[in-house]
Structure formats: C-alpha cells, structure tokens
Amino acid sequence: MPVPEHQQRQIADKQFHDATLIWNYHQMGHEQRPCSAAIGLGSHDLGVATAAADLYRAGLFPVVVFSGGNSPTTRARFPRGEAVHYREHALSLGVPDEAILVEPKAANTGQNITFSRELLTQAGVEVQSLLLISKPYMERRSYATCRKLWPEAEVVCASEPLELDDYIKSIGDEKLVVDMLVGDLQRVIEYPKLGFAVEQDVPGDVYDAYERLLGAGFDSRLIST
After folding, report:
1. What is the pTM of this model?
2. Taking every annotated instance into account, which residue ranges of this chain make up the domain DUF218 (predicted)?
C-alpha cells in the first residue's frame, strides 16, 4: 500500500501547513488575460519557460523577454545563462524565435524589470500591460518590484499552476523549498524599506507562520537586514 503523502514528508505537518499558507500568499491569483508583452524572470526553475510557452500558445502576449544571467545557484544548471536556457526550452515547446527577446545580464529582480523594459523599448514594443512570469512563490515579490520600477504598466502575474506538494517534487528538496518561501517573504517585507518594491500587506496568520518557520531553522535563503 502506498505511504500517505503526509507520512512521506521530512518536515512536520504543522510546518507544511505554515509553508502552504506562505505559498498561497505568494501567489497573486490574477486572472490571466492578453498583455502587450511578457517577461520570464530568470531563476533555477525551467518551469518559468514552460509556463511562458503555454501562455504564448494561449495567445496572451506577442513577445516575451527571457531575462537573467547567472548566479551561484544557477550557474551549474544553466551554464550559458538563465535567459539563454529559457529561450532554448521555449523554442523546443514551439514558441517561434521571432516572439522571443533575450536579456542575458540581469542579476536580480529589479534588473530583470529594468533591463527588460529597455530591451522592449529598443525593439519598438509599446507596453501598456505586462505579464510577469515567475516561479510560483515569486509572484508577489515580482509584482511589488514591477509596481515600483514600472508603475505605469498594468501588471498581471503568472506561474506554473502547481500545488506546493507538486513543486517540492519538481525541485526534490523539501527543506530548500520551504527556505525559499521564507526567504521570499522576508524580501516582500524588507524590500519596500530599501526602496526596491512597493509595500504589500502581510496577513497576521501568514506572518505568524513565517515567524514559526524562522524559529524552526528554515533560514538559509535570508538576506541581511
């Protein structure tokens, strides 16, 4: 008989519940609709390019910028750079080359937005609305960053439609995923104070879950504050 999912977990059920609260908070729940352009935000997660291909085939944008260079966490996985590997994956899924722009230098989310905006301007793309495609747990931070840096664009967020259990399976490291959820929530909280993003309301139950997970040692992806 198969072992129930909750008995396979390496973290306690209460910790998984807290992680799920944060996972759900990170996702904006935007209704997907056609936009002037899309940006696929570079990361370790090739699912961003998969989602971009699905959304392109659905007719939601005419052009996508894949943005991202390399970082210590992606250099081994994407040796030619995040954006280059994203482009290759999207091409393999049927996105035409003429619908893809590559921005290969960005090293953080702010640069993803700023450099992609410059590239779209150079390409003559007029942007009234923007589809931001990210990892599932990065929707809120990418939204807050874009609202700060590109306030005149209407922003719609998207990611692969995965539940937390499925995302953990795709990454293969349960603690690392929870660490990343906690780290991104810290950035949502702290980045507005640094001028990097607009402020987002954090519900009390989400903040309490964050505090409990921090206390339990899910802290490898924190920034210094």
Report:
1. 0.92
2. 48-152
Measured CA to CA, the distance from residue 30 to residue 185 in angstroms comes to 19
- Provide the sign of the torsion angle of the four alpha carbons 158, 160, 161, 165, taken in this order: negative
Q: What is the DSSP string of 32-52?
A: P---SEEEEE-SS-THHHHHH
Tokens representing 183 are 């780290």
Beta-bridge partner residues of 103: 67
15 by Cβ neighbours in 10 Å (0-12 / 13-18 / 19+) ranks as buried
User: Which amino acid, one-letter code, is at 177?
Assistant: V
Distance CA 180, CA 186 (A): 10
Q: How far apart are CA 137 and CA 210, in angstroms?
A: 14
